[in-house]
Amino acid sequence: MNDAEAHLLSPYRPPTSYPVTLGAEEAAAWLTGWFALWHPAVLERLRRPPVASSSYDHDQPGEGFVYAVPAGPHLYQPDDWTYRLQQANAVSFQSELNRTDTAEAMGEAFRLRGLDSPLLALTPEITTPFAAVGYGHLIVESLFDAADHEHLLDAEGFWADVQSAVQAARDGADAVPHLRAAAEKLRSARETLCSNGFSFADWVMLPADANESFRWPESLHRNLPLTVIAPAEHWEYLRKTAPECFAEIVAKLPPGLPGTVDLAVGGFAERDDSFLPIESQCWNLTRGRGAIRAWLGNGANLLYGRKRSALHPSLPTWLKHCGFERAIVTPFDGALTPTRNQSVVNWPAPDGKSIDATAKEAQPADDALTFFNIIHTLHQATSTDSYPLVPLLHRGEEPAVGYSELSALADLAPAVGEFVGTHRYLEEHNYGDYLGSTTADDYFSDDLDYRTTTRKRSDPVSGFAKHQRLRRRLDTAFTLTALHRMLTAPTPADLALQEALSTYETAIETAGADGPGEPEGLAASEAHAVERLAARLQGSAAANVPGYLIFNPCAYTRRAALEIADFGGQIPMTDPVKAAQFDGKSAKLVVEIPSLGFAWIPSGRPGTPAAKPKLKTAEGTIVRNEFFEAEVDPTTGGLRAFRDMRTRLNRLGMVPIWNPGSTCKATGVTITSSGAALGEITSTGDIHDDQGVLLATFTQRLRAWMGRPALEVLVTFDVKQQAVGYPWHGYFGTRFGRRDERAVLFRGSHGKNARTSGNRPCSADYLEFRLGGERTFVFTGGLPFLQTQSNRLVDAVLIPEGETERRFEFLIAADRDHPMQTAQGWTTPTPVLKVNSGPPNGLTSSWLGHLDLPSLLLTTLRPDEGRAITARFVETASYAGSAELRFAVPPATAATIDGLGAEVQAIVLNGGAIPLEFSADEGFRLRAAW
Question: CA quadruple 243, 244, 245, 249: dihedral positive or negative?
Fold first, then answer.
């Protein structure tokens, strides 16, 4: 009978109650030493399993004992310890950072003692399962210690199975059945502590630049489940640059059979989606899902998952809408998310729709500390989870020591636990934490710092505003094309236009806030959409009556401010014209346009008297209209006061600033327009730091249009000293100050108005200051980064380090009942077409589509196959209700559809109208056909 022992001499032990902050190299050396002691050549000499011991207990080596000493800090040992080893015929070797060097050191140590064995020549394919069983033995026995529980492992039976496996290896037979029996005994013992077992999930982040050198984790080749987190465009790149790696995944997804690979897809492109419009997010989700299905078939389970967080309260609604039922919402980038205790959470949106998700923190698979601290990880998991999950994250690096042994152990038996697919895990364990209602303050992903510091973007702020306006241009063109489709069946020219717009959409949305600008040809397609609808409407209009046809792509009445050069003369002040001002051949007009409709105005009527101003729109330092007045501060050049005309109380002030500290000094205040339609004041000034150094100059333009209850603000900077450093601390921007510090902040978040108390209440839509019944809004137009400075001050971050844009626009308004209408309408273009025929059917204005509830926001109207259109809506007032959607030509059929276009429920028309029913904050989509 063998009577030797094996000891790993180290002052460290895999922790149980707390993680050890050990160096990764020391942890790797410890693990390779432990696994080396479970080599068959060592095990055949032993009377019991290897153990970890203190060097002080082995000043005198045991007869024939085997010692592994991890590389690292020098252990205290007698000066003649090498001599004592020789006298005891004991073996000692130093374990290194990798298995190969450690195995060579062990073999050399055996040979020096004349203990050469044929087992030393075994390949890693044979020895790894032995090391895996040794790893399982270490974990299970340590878990008993962590729980202060009696050790219930059948030690004799376990060791007999191990020795049988050693004998099989010596005889050239298959040792796996014996090792599997030993692993089953470990499982039986572990089940007394945790009957449900542990679940391990392999999460692989597919690199954006994966090529032929990329390798999948070995769990894929062991047929263990794997979850790949990547946008569709990364799969497309892999398909082209590394077809063999791509084929390996396809092989694991047999048609009609359950595959072993889950795909976590956050969209087609990995963009900074947090502040992008709803239509942009839905495009990314549906396009990504469709691309994955096209390339990889239907054998893969799809989840939502992203490398960079882009979470917000309404996301579960859009995920369900776009076909996702489960998600990985772990913040891999350290973003702020709600606290979760269990592995499975039910994540609801404000409208009540929910998805099952996991936000479990992933352990890096390329860090040896993950596998050294795994006992602590498992022990902690049992205290919070009924079915503990331990994700192992692969980021393209070689897995650390311990990963192969853990996956090989799972391949033998679920001694500690099993590797599971994330989709299957969430499907089987669909209970856990109920996250409850969340607000925008519960989520924060620092896109500003990421875009500025990490990615060095030249448009870290302005990229969002430019994208939002491009998105609304696209939606406008789609809407006009859809209205034309409502009026007539599509022709080849219509289908070509629809295809062109989809191509531009792909280019714009693939880039997101990183977009290079307007795609070539977009303006021509927009003009083509306008011309085709105009031609259809004016088919029977009186000829040789010059005028302008103006369209409204929004589902609510708008008062558009227009500036038209070479207008042709005065026109009468009758509907739909609400204000008019003529400066030579240039016209400044305010025109009221019905929802999804048009207005026609003449291009000039000889003899028409000039419109008389209703009030003085600009005088001194004040611009005004019938709704408000705005006063420029002659000292700073900023906005001193914004007052509503009813109470005359100051609502808001604004001044250009440099953070962390600056003074602003006006150099000029000039009235640049004071007419019947527009009051405009332009101020200029300098921004100095605390030492009086000139940092920048600015120009600020305030505009008040008659008939429009919103102040337009344009700020332009000429930067002399560039911003550097952390973008939240060093930036040029505008500072808004409210009158009363008791005013409460609200912000728009993807259609929902939500109270905020965060110090960075970011919003791409608007910020609201509410005091009693007073509601004052700053519409940011896609400039999302806001930061509070005190109870009264909020900064809009405009020019951090690297930002090249110098021109920024805001809108300030008071007491808007439906602020999302204003936010959307401000960034939506108003198409104007010069025509040579009279009003359509004699109507100077009319609607082509009408929605009778202002809180229900139409985000897009698009042509569909055949003579049909689709529309998407978002409820924005947090009230359930019903509404009716009408078109100038009543549709034949209508149905609600999901984000992928599949019919959800047929709608029974009500006298030609489409009845809509919805819950609070719900987003939904419908299809109407003629």
Answer: positive
φ/ψ of residue 658, rounded to 5: -120, 125
With b for 16 or more beta-carbon neighbours within 10 A and e for fewer, the 515-542 pattern comes to beeebeebeebbebbbebbbeebbeebe
Lowest model confidence (mean pLDDT) among 86-95, 553-562, 708-717: 86-95
Give the pLDDT confidence score for residue 1 in this predicted structure.
42
Query: Quick one: tokens of 691?
Result: 């030492």
Report the alpha-carbon distance of residue 110 to residue 293 in Å, rounded: 55
**Rounded distance, CA 281 to CA 269, Å?**
10
480: its two tokens: 């006009």
Residues facing residue 653 across a β-bridge: 737
Percent of the chain at pLDDT > 90 equals 78
Give me the residues paired with residue 327 across strands: 304, 357
Residue with tokens 């969209």: 267
Among 369, 374, 372, smallest CA distance to 388 is for 374
The token pair that represents 51 in the structure block: 């153990």
837 contacts: CB under 8 Å, gap ≥ 6: 538, 541, 542, 543, 544, 545, 547
Instruction: Name the token pair of 908.
Output: 């029974």
Beta-bridged to residue 913, according to DSSP, are 910
Q: Which pair of structure tokens corresponds to residue 737?
A: 């100050």
Nearest one of 419, 404, 368 to 134, comparing CA atoms = 404
Beta pairing, strands 622-624 & 577-583: unpaired
For 485-522, the pLDDT digits (tens) are 999 999 999 999 999 999 999 999 999 999 888 999 99
Say how many Å lie between the first and final Cα of the chain, rounded: 89
pTM of the complete model: 0.92
> Could you give the C-alpha distances from 636 to 493, 538, 662, 676, 687, in angstroms and in order?
55, 52, 11, 28, 9
> Which amino acid is it at 117?
S
Tokens linked to 647:
């109470």
The sheet carrying 543-551 orders its strands as: 832-837, 543-551, 597-602, 845-847
Give the integer Cα–Cα distance in Å for 233 and 212: 17
Distance CA 407, CA 425 (A): 17
Among residues 917, 916, 862, 909, which one has the least CA distance to residue 889?
909
What is the 8-class DSSP label of residue 539?
Answer: T
CB 399 within 8 A of CB 370: no
Helix or strand run (H / E) with residue 587: strand 586-593
Type and span of the H or E element at 601: strand 597-602
Asked whether 92 and 84 are in contact (CB, 8 A), the reply is: no
Which domains are delineated in the chain?
A: 6-191 (no CATH), 198-445 (3.20.110.10), 446-537 (no CATH), 545-606+831-842 (no CATH), 618-827 (2.70.98.30), 848-929 (2.60.40.1180)
Whether the bond into 576 is cis, omega within 30 of 0: yes
